[in-house]
Predict the structure.
Amino acid sequence: MRFSLFINPLTMKPEDDYAAIEGTIRQVALANELGFAGVFLSEHHFSGYNAYANPMVFGARLAAELTEAWLSFATVTPPHYHPARLAEDLNLLDNLMQGRMFIGWGKGGIPGETLGLGYHHDEGADRFADTTKAMFDLWAKKPSDPPLTIDGRFFKGTVHERIVPCAYGGAKHPKIIRATRSESGLTEAANNAWPAFLMGPQAIDSFADKLKAAGHSEEIQKFCLDWTVLPWIAHVAESDNKAMAEMSQPFATFGEWVTRQEALKDDYYEDGNVGPRFDPPKLGDGPGGGEMPGAFGSPDTVYERLKLFEEWGFRHLLLGMQFGGMPFDEVERSMRLFAKEVMPRFEKN
């Protein structure tokens, strides 16, 4: 089984932003050095949930550090962008990464983000469909084709020649990884030979069956399953007690952030419809315990918890190892211990 890192540094106040960004660059460089398969960037705006906000700009900086590991997005939000601009940006990143890149994308729809970017969160699904359709059309356009007019509900434009640059190596477009919670999403991913960003462990067998039913070669099926990921949180220390102690403050900080977002809901939603309620997560008493999906403890404890996913058929976990504003020296110690004491056991398997 292989491991990638989910990169989503939380910052609670402006004076912490630079340190979070600089520490994240160090974390990504270390991930590349230690043999993590990839790093996955998220996209969140205005709340401090993600200190770097724009994954394309930040991804361009990280490309210089990623000499072996891949770059992916979990996820970029097409409704926020004009399709021609987003198609260009992603193609450029694909070239900077020499093809070692996946586009993970989703409709977004967090009200505080969409309102800040000038549209209502209820438009997210329609904007996603319009934007991604236009992007595929733009990626397919050749210079000799007639001008391509974008005439959707939300974005307009006419491209006379082509998207520049093209994807790396002359591919039709950068590789795609499909984030999904549904069977229909798994079917779409399988039919298109896209890996999947899964939200639950029960979906892996269904996805493997769908890839086979789609008639893909064994090589393509293997590639898709090798890069199909499940998100999880992990923190490793010399002992279970130390790991749990080090997670205590990050859980409290994240709980403070959740509480702050709940207090803003009346400003984000209309007609009293305040959406789902999210309570602050709780850290349990035992190793790796709690309501958040995670593995916290000594190398032995973390290995035993993560081994379950390998037994269920997963080949790749996406680990969040910088959680709740955790100090970056603790993140680095955890990553080094994980790479030294946990990863080799899975390589032997």
The first strand starts at residue 2 and ends at 7. The chain has one domain: 2-241+293-348.
